[in-house]
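> call design_seq(struct)
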């Protein structure tokens, strides 16, 4: 494909509460065996984009570890490859990334050294599948300066956390409002953009000169009247990890057969880093219904409408309902967990009852197993 890819994975989302205290949103576990960034990376490689840069910053430890080998997404090539850029102190700059435009601008040499005519920009905090070639084709056909991939959320949707777009019948953007205070258009930006590489360099250099840092406000909104900005509407599944409730709903969506079929059985595939773990083990007396259980887990209790991530242990007579159990969680005998997200490496004591039907509860890391 005649494009390079940039994945923005450095932001901090306070709406994720305790879940983002130890990891970036792009590293959030999804569907038992995946991370949020896997979907953007898989879309890049499936669209035959051979050169991709991932810009990380906040709590980047686990994300950088996940990206330590590019072979899982087939970026281990002599031509192209996967590049991970973190903020660095130089003689000209002493700042961390101050915004999305500044993050790209601090790595502008990546764009200048590339030869592909177009750039695909995506975020690491959305779950979706798409062929970026179709967006690029529309971008070329319309003669647009910038193409924004959008999603129609439907009447009554809460759009206060998104950028809303108003377009004419030809798909040209008439207005773009970032995080509106009151309802209007329900067509929202997915944070996926196509732009010509030389134009992006020009706009970034202008931002640098004027000390501007945000891609949406300082590139899109500022140029919506002077540049031709067009819309490409995504009609398949797309959801953004905007907060704890959205994260919970996204994972629960994978318990629906049609969602699992779309992501895991329909071409192209979604790829992730694979760990050498044995299959999940179900001991006598265990019961699992409408749930996903990842490799390395040992199940002795009853699981219903839940997602169990890797290397979890569920004790005898346990009952887990409508919950997300992250990696390496130990749940003691006779424990009851309902409507919870249990953080990685946590220990749930025997006979403990946690959660109810009314709200999603986060069980933060409790390392009783490792205490002296």
């Amino acid at each position: 494909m005649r494009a390079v890819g940039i994945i923005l994975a450095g932001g901090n989302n306070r709406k994720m509460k305790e879940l983002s205290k130890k990891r970036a949103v792009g590293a959030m576990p999804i569907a038992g065996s995946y991370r949020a960034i896997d979907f953007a990376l898989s879309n890049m490689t499936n669209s035959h984009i051979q050169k991709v840069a991932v810009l990380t910053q906040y709590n980047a430890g686990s994300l950088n570890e996940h990206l330590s080998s590019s072979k899982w997404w087939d970026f281990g090539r002599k031509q192209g490859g996967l590049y991970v850029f973190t903020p660095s102190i130089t003689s000209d700059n002493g700042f961390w990334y101050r915004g999305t435009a500044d993050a790209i601008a601090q790595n502008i040499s990546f764009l200048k050294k590339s030869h592909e005519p177009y750039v695909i920009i995506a975020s690491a905090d959305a779950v979706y599948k798409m062929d970026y070639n179709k967006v690029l084709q529309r971008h070329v056909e319309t003669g647009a300066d910038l193409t924004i991939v959008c999603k129609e959320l439907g009447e009554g949707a809460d759009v206060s956390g998104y950028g809303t777009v108003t377009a004419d019948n030809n798909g040209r953007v008439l207005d773009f409002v970032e995080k509106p205070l009151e309802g209007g258009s329900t067509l929202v930006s997915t944070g996926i953009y196509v732009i010509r590489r030389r134009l992006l360099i020009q706009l970034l250099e202008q931002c640098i000169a004027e000390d501007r840092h945000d891609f949406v406000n300082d590139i899109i909104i500022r140029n919506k009247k002077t540049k031709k900005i067009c819309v490409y509407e995504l009609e398949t599944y797309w959801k953004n990890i905007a907060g704890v409730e959205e994260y919970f709903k996204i994972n629960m969506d994978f318990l629906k057969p049609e969602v699992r079929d779309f992501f895991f059985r329909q071409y192209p595939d979604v790829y992730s880093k694979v760990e050498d773990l044995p299959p999940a083990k179900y001991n006598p007396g265990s019961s699992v219904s409408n749930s996903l259980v990842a490799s390395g887990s040992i199940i002795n209790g009853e699981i219903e409408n839940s997602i169990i991530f890797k290397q979890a242990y569920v004790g005898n007579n346990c009952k887990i309902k409508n919950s997300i159990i992250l990696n390496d969680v130990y749940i003691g005998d006779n424990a009851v967990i309902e409507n919870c997200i249990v953080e990685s490496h946590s220990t749930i004591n025997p006979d403990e009852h946690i959660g109810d039907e009314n709200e999603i509860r986060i069980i933060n890391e409790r390392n009783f197993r490792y205490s002296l």
